[in-house]
Amino acid sequence: MDWRQLWEICSAPDNVPIVGLIPLLCFYIYLAFKQAHANDQLIAQLEGDAALAKTHHRKTWPFKPGWQKEVHVWPFLLRIEFLAAIIVTIILMVWSITLNAPLEEPANPNLTMNPAKAPWYFLGLQEMLVYFDPWIAGVVMPTMIIVGLMVIPYIDTNPLGSGYYTWKQRKFSIGTFLFGFIILWVAMIIIGTFIRGPGWQWFWPGQTWDHNRLIYEVNRDLPDIFGITSNMAKALFGAIVVGGYYLLGGFLVYSLFRRYMAKDFKRMSLLQFSITQFLLLTMVALPLKMGLRLLWHIKYVWITPWFNI
Amino acid sequence: MPEQPNPEQDPITTKSYAAYYLVAMVILMATLFWALWDEAWTQRPWKAFQEHWASRYSAFLNTARSKSATSETDVEKNPDYIALKQAYEKTYQDSKSQGEDARKKLDDASARLLAVQSVFTDRRAYVNALTYELETSKSDSEKASKRKEIDKYKSEQATVEYPDGSKETYTFPQLEEKYNEIRDERTKRSLELGDVLKPVTAAKAKMDEYISDHMVDLTPQQIDGLKRRATEWVPAIVQINVAEANIVDRCESCHMNTREPLKITAASMTGKGEKKPDEYADAFVSHTQPELLQLHDPEKFGCSPCHQGNGRATTSIEKAHGNYEHWLWPLFPKENAQAGCQNCHAADMVLVSGDVQWPTLNNGKDLFRQRGCMGCHRFEGYDKEPEDLNAIGQQIKQIETQKIDNSKQTAYLMKQADAAESNEEANKLNTQAVDLRVANSKLDGRLQQLDYQSHSLMQDQKKVGPNLKDVRLKLNKNWIPVWLKKPSDFRPTTKMPNFRLSDHQIQAISAYIWQSGFTDPLPKHKPGNATHGKELFETRGCLACHSIGEGDQTQGGTFAANLTRVGEKANYDYLVRWIHNARQRTRPYCPYEKKDIGPEDYAKKGLPYEFDLDHSRCPNDGHELQVQNMTVMPSLRLSPEDAEDIATYLMTQKKQEPSSYADASYMDDPKLKDEGKKWVRYFGCSGCHEIGGFEDEGRIGTELTYEGSKPIERLDFALFTEVAQRGGKDAEPIKDKEDLARLPDGPATEPWYNLKGFFEHKLAEPNIFDQGKVKGETEALRMPNLHLTREQVLDLTTFLMGSEETSLPASYQYKPGDARHDIQEGWWIIKKYNCMGCHQFIPGQQTILMGMKQYQDIQEQLPPKLLTEGARVDPEWMRKFLSNPALSTTDTNRNGVRPYLKVRMPTFSFSDNELRKLVRFFQALSQQPMPYIPEEVPALTTKETDMARSLFSSTAAPCLKCHATGDPNHDKIATAPNFLLAKERLKPDWVERWITDPQAVSPGTSMPSGLFKQQNNQWVFAGPTPPSFQGYEGDHRKLLTDYIFQLTPEEQRRVAASMPHAKAEMQRRSERKQAAVESHPVASGGSR
Q1: From the candidates A5, A7, A87, which should be mutated to test the interface with B, based on the most B CB atoms within 10 A?
Q2: Alpha helix locations (H) across B833-925?
Q3: Between B277 and which of A28, B40, B266, B1061 could a Cys-Cys bridge form, CB atoms 3.0 to 4.6 Å apart?
Q4: Secondary structure string (H, E, C) spanning B811-831
Q5: Would you state the pLDDT for residue A64?
Q6: ipTM more than 0.90?
């Protein structure tokens, strides 16, 4: 265990936000679920009691006579937000006093740094370059992330859970969000920061980042394993596999939706459902592709002259 | 929610946040103050430095001032000073009343001027403003009204109140007139006062000047000035900003004393009560080499161009010194500080400022050349002859093609002209053809020049190691594999490095070298006299380059091989040839045909088999041949018998019999030859040796010209990358004790992942970065172990660290266009032939011979010092002397100028190129203008000649007692050159200086000083003046010089014959000398 290496990575000013991110993320997920759990219990209690169900509740405490039913933004919300602003200011000031901007030497066009890493918030995208070609990982995927986020209000047909924490009423939305954010974004950043060393090789935490390390790793394309040689056949084969994934996946999502989220499904139009289904399958495709690449050394599934997947 | 107790009060509306806000605000304010503190102090650590500086430096100056005051009082006690002081006081008293009067008048005028001025400037400003409006107004009516307004204002009356209380009123023009009038008056009064005070100021200035001239240190007044600066200092960044070179150096913000005119040490800057100098004390020292700062004005050069570091950084010591990962030019460590010189002085071989040599860098440069580093590694400026030859070859080819083209074109034009329709056109074409012919003739001239050049370059081209084509003629065959195994086992100080060859590689390499050598017969020599050989070896000057003896017994120079065991390896007949003339080649080499030319090639053309510098054309194709061995070893012009004697002596130098070496008959195995060729190529043997079949082989190493700029990532630390970065207990990978001892700083404990660490480890154990690696025979690192000493590793590391691609503008590079360039060029040659082994060029420089025991009592037997050689001799004579130091084509077994010296000035066969550079070097070194125009020496009248002769032969200055005369009996005991040489050899003005004070020109010379003394601005003879000088008004020194320059052989003989006293004296001297020689048998040994 190379503690020094670990410390060097964690203490690098570039990586401090990521190190901070891990406990903060855990804490806020815990907090959200704690609140959601309390709310869900209250919802269950309210649903069981017709009288209480008519009262307005702002909080997870049972109603007390004499309490205000509604409170104003000023001062009751803003005083908390202002306090938060002060605390964030303190954090930023202390941070900027103690840690200098991680500047390095002037760029040398004849010498590429190794490993060459993007700023921490882009490390997830950079990590994706390992699994897809630059066109897909660098252009298509980020565009889909943005478009997908924009489209959420139009495909979300669940009217419940607005303005309070809940898990039971929004299992699908919250689950998908956590999957997208924690697995696809944060986990990839963490891999990019802590796992990827010189030569963008996989180093387990605590393993020395040796610039001279040599590993044997041959990546093959899926068509090669099946002995397909002609370009046309490769493209065709890949199209069938990818198409098959979306087709089979589509059936699976369809049946799961019908079984577990019948209410939502009924509220959805065909367009809304197909978009949801496509985005969901594309999200799931990323960890699947990572698995193929990391465990079975499969580089690409679908090879065409224009893009590779 | 059963678990949570229900709060009775509404938790949202009733909860108070005051406590949270209080805490948050307190923390926020604390952070704010922290930020302010950080901004003012933490980010500006130089402020603390400057505070400490002000207090410590003032304290230091107080002490310095009291010392200075004491020495000032001493100076003031001097009667000269007292006289000056009295003179001052007298003039002061004399001019006192007059001065006071003048001052009063001046003060009065000034006061009146002030009164008028305040009114006048106010009114003038108003007029000017109105005038501007007038000038910029658009319409005529407006202009007219403005003009009116101005005139009205000017005619208004203004009141001036004078200091004496009186009041006057003036219009504007009157006011202006009054103002000018009073101003002129004041100027006049001021001049008057100046005139009155002039003698007083002058007397005061004289007093002050006297003190500052006679004080060794600064005067108390000067120190007060420094102290004022320290006490009144306001913290500020001190910055040198040179826009043209992009230098911004703020180093002096902490290093406040760098340029102070006192010598300030860390000890004197240590704070009160502190035992050891802290970081502040270390920062406040003055520059250790103030004279360097005088040559390199910090206002132009800044600090970082020499020292490196980050001149802009001010936030921490570490950052400012550039000692962090991302600054590419960290401060040179103290021991490597001279690396900074290399940045701009890469073209210099020897760095001298004033008379101070810079040994670390100079030795580094020298080692790089002498140890043959340049055989494998290209470095700009080193060993450039082969490159130049190549370039010239290409130019020759180009010109030849051009010539052919031109002649074709000429023929074509002539033909065109014949067929031309008009006369005019024919003429035009003809002219063109003629022009082309002229162009061709010019090209011929150029070709000839290039031929001369390549002739010179062929001569200048040298190899570090011996010519291995001669290996069969030269060496004991069985010795070769033993040598290759580990050369330093046989000869610990050898230049030949250890290549870590396997037995098989040794066999193959020796087989190739043996089989590719010449087999020509050598003339047989009879054995000589070893005792006489030993004497010659020790007295002729061999020891200036070569050494002999091992361990403590070693004596001689390190420039060439130690000859202690030469008898085990050498072949006697070859050794004789080598000693007689090392440059003599067995066969000439033709670079054009790429083969060695033998007698058969000459015979084919019916030419005699004769090749030397005058017969250097290839019989086959007429191109320049390599006719000399590429060695710097010169010819000592020994007689063949002397050469035999020395060789015989050297053959006795052995520890074991040559026959005791194990048989190595495999060297004749033709099967090994091909493999050997592979290894010779692989290890780059031809970088240092001439080897058959490898004449055009390139260098195998990486170029090092800009090695100091190499990014650290480009240097392969192999398996030691991590330990080098981290330091600590296991940071040192070198295990071998001998190699470990080569590290300048000892075994590493600190991180050494930097250029210095890499170079040092690489030089100490060149294959260190192979340690732990699994590599094949042809993958392993090839750099051999040069068995360097700790100092040598430091020197070379410094040299490499400084070899950077600099960002400074070209004007900062030391590439002078004037005489200093000649000095620069000359040093390369001086070092190349080890001239400094015998001669002193810079005061304080030690020669090898000077350090030897046998010369301690007979200093006059040392080779002459060349401190002012350029001023001493005529450059044309010098060129002749350097190309033939015997100054004779027939009688060569002697020194031309100093036949009495046993040590011999050798014939180096300098090329024309090198002769030119050397002559220019000596002239430039003594600041002599080139070309030299000899001074006209006036012809003496008979009377003057008689007078001069009487001086020349006077008993008080018997010149011919020591100077050689050409008479063999006398010359045996002479210790100075013959006067007859003077006319052609010396410069008259130098001779005058020389005979006045020889000790000042060449310290330690046996020529007596004080022959002349100064009298009425003339130099007159110091001894009893001969009677013929009665009434002579002229300069005796000049007279004698002129006489010497007109001396004829007959005259000299006459004078010598008429000196019976001197003869007797000479006799006694010679007896004494004989005794001295006998008591130092080593120093004896005349020529046979």
Answers
A1: A87
A2: 869-872, 875-883, 912-925
A3: B266
A4: HHCCCCCCHHHHHHHHHHHHH
A5: 67
A6: no
Least confident of B388-402, B442-456, B948-962: B948-962
Question: How far, in Å, CA of B266 to CA of B258, rounded?
Answer: 12
Residues of B in contact with A94 (CB under 8 A): 31, 34
> Which member of A41, A66, A211 has the closest CB to residue B721?
A211
Of B796, B727, B805, B722, the closest CA to residue B766 belongs to: B796
Answer for the pair B982, B1047: CB distance below 8 angstroms, yes or no. Answer: yes
Please, what is the Cα angle at B769 between B767 and B772, to 5 degrees? 100
Q: Is B663 helix (H, G, I), strand (E, B) or coil?
A: coil
Contact A68/B13, CB-based, under 8 Å?
yes
The token pair at B617 is 């054309």
Phi, psi of B969 (to 5 degrees): -65, -45
Distances from the Cα of B755 to the Cα of B207, B330, B761, B811, angstroms: 57, 10, 10, 27
B17 phi, psi to nearest 5 deg: -105, 10
Side chain identity, residue B967? D
Would you state the structure tokens that stand for residue B521, as one six-digit string?
């017969």
CA distance A96 to chain B (A): 9
pTM: 0.86
Pairing assessment for the beta strands B356-357 and B352-353 based on DSSP bridges: antiparallel
Task: Give the total residue count for chain A.
Answer: 309
- Residue B371 tokens, joined: 């140890």
Q: At what angle do helices A270-296 and A231-260 cross, to 10 degrees?
A: 120
Interatomic CA distance for residues B548 and B564, integer angstroms: 5
Q: Which two tokens stand for residue B563?
A: 């000859």
* Residue B879: closest CA among B834, B837, B912, B924: B912
Closest CA to B547 of B562, B565, B564, B527: B562
Pair of tokens at residue B169: 């009123």
**Sign (positive or negative) of CA dihedral B351, B357, B359, B360:** negative
What are residue A148's phi and psi, to 5 degrees?
Answer: -60, -40
Q: Do B8 and A97 touch (CB under 8 A)?
A: no
- What pLDDT was estimated at residue B1035? 84
Please give the backbone phi and psi of residue A26, each rounded to the nearest 5 degrees, phi first.
-60, -45
Question: Would you tell me how many other CB atoms lie within 10 Å of the CB of residue B572?
Answer: 19
Rounded to 10 degrees, the C-alpha dihedral B895/B901/B907/B908 comes to -150
Which residues in chain B have Cβ-Cβ distances shorter than 8 Å to A104? 326
Residue B548 bridge partners (DSSP): B555
First to last CA, chain A: 36
What count of other Cβ atoms lies within 10 Å of the Cβ of residue B525? 19
Report the distance separating Cα B277 and Cα B868, nearest Å. 45
Range B1033-1051 average pLDDT: 86
Segment holding B548, helix H or strand E: strand B547-548
Q: Which residues of A touch B328 (CB under 8 A)?
A: 105-106
State pLDDT tens for residues B657-669: 999 999 999 999 9
Residues of B engaging A, defined by a Cβ cutoff of 8 Å = 1, 4, 6-8, 10-13, 17, 20-21, 24-25, 27-28, 31-32, 34-35, 38, 326-328, 711, 713-714, 718-719, 721-722, 726
How confident is the model over B548-578, as pLDDT tens digits? 998 888 899 999 999 999 999 999 999 999 9
| Single-letter amino acid, residue B957 | A
pLDDT digits (tens, 9 = 90+) for A230-283: 999 999 999 999 999 999 999 999 999 999 988 889 999 999 999 999 999 999
The pLDDT confidence band at residue B325, using thresholds 50, 70 and 90, is confident
Any bridge partners for residue B159, and if so which? B169
Task: Return the DSSP state at B741.
Answer: T
Q: Which residue of A has its CA nearest to B329?
A: A105
